[in-house]
Amino acid sequence: MSTLYALTGNDVVLLQESSRSWRAEVLLRDVGAQCIALDPHDARRLVVGTFDRGLLLSEDAGRSWRQATGLPAQRILSVAISSSRVVGGRGVIFAGAEPSALYWSDDNGSSWQEARSLRELPSAASWSFPPRPWTSHVRAIAVSPHDPNLILVGIELGGVLRSTDGGVTWADQRPGCYLDCHALLLHPAAPNLVYEAAGGGVAVSRDAGDTWRAEDEGIDRRYVWALASSPDDPAIWFVSAAPGPREAHGPGPHRDAVPIRVGEANARIFRRVADQPWRPVEGLPDPLPSMPYALLIPPGEPRMLYVGFRDGRLWRGRELGSIWEELPVRLDSVLVLAAALA
C-alpha cells in the first residue's frame, strides 16, 4: 500500500492507502508549505520549506516538527537532502531561497552555510521573477546521488547554475539551458543525465549539467512545469505543460501563494521514451482543465505515476500511465507530491 506526502501550498498532508480506500491526515496546517525532501538514509527524517516561515524539520515522519535555527532566509522554495554527501549518518540539507540564495546544513538544521559565490555570478543582476520582478528565487535543486560535490540549481528566472565542489564555487548560466527553470532531475540510474522543465520547454544535459540542448519535439504547450522519470529506467520521462503561465496558474500576481482561482488550464501530460518525440499520455481528459503541478514515480513503485492537480485532485496511472484511476482524495490543491521511503 502506498504512502505519500502532499503539499497544498499551505498544509502538509499524509496520504495513506489501505485495502479499501485512502486516508488523508494533516501533519502541518497553514504553514505555507512549498517544498519537501526526505532523507534517503532515514525514512523518518524530512524537511519542509515554507513561503514565509523558514524551514521545518521532522525526525518522526511528520508527527512532530521543529524550526531550523540560524537560517537567514524565511522564504524557502526548494529543498533537497543529499544521498551522497553524508555527515554523521545524515544527508546534508540544501535550501533554496527568495531572494535567490542557496544554503546547506550538515548538522541537521542547527546551523547553515551560504553558497555566497552563487549570488556573485555575473548573471545575478539580470535574475527576475515576472510576478515579483524585483526578485527571483532558487526554484529547483538537484544534488547528485553519485557525486557529493555535484550540485545544480535552477533560478526562476535565471537559468541553471552548476557547482562541482560542493557549492563553494559556481559556473554561471549553462549553455543551452532554459532561463525560466521550474524543475531539475539528475537521474539516479544515469549519472550524467539531467532534465530541465521550464517556461519555454524541456532541456536535456548528458554531461551532468555542464551543457544543455532543447528537446521539445512533440510538445505543443511550452510552459513546462513538473517532471518525473522511472527511477530504474532513464529512457522514460514525463512532463506537464500548459500554453502559458496564466493558463497554468490562473490570474493574480502572486501565484506562489496558493490557493488561487482555478480556470481552464488547457494542459497535458507528455511521455517520452528514449529519443522519440514527446507524446501526450492517453486515458486522461484531453486537454486537462486543471494544471498537473506534481508528477511522481516513487522509488518503491517504479511502474506507477501519480499526478497531483492544482484543483486538489489526484490520479494514478498504472504501468506508467497506461491505466488511469482518480484517487478518492480531494485537497485544496496539490503543489508537490513525495513518496514516503521504506
UniProtKB/TrEMBL annotation:
GO terms for biological process: xyloglucan metabolic process. InterPro entries: WD40/YVTN_repeat-like_dom_sf, Xyloglucanase_GH74. This is BNR/Asp-box repeat domain protein. It comes from Thermomicrobium roseum (strain ATCC 27502 / DSM 5159 / P-2). The lineage of its organism: Bacteria, Pseudomonadati, Thermomicrobiota, Thermomicrobia, Thermomicrobiales.
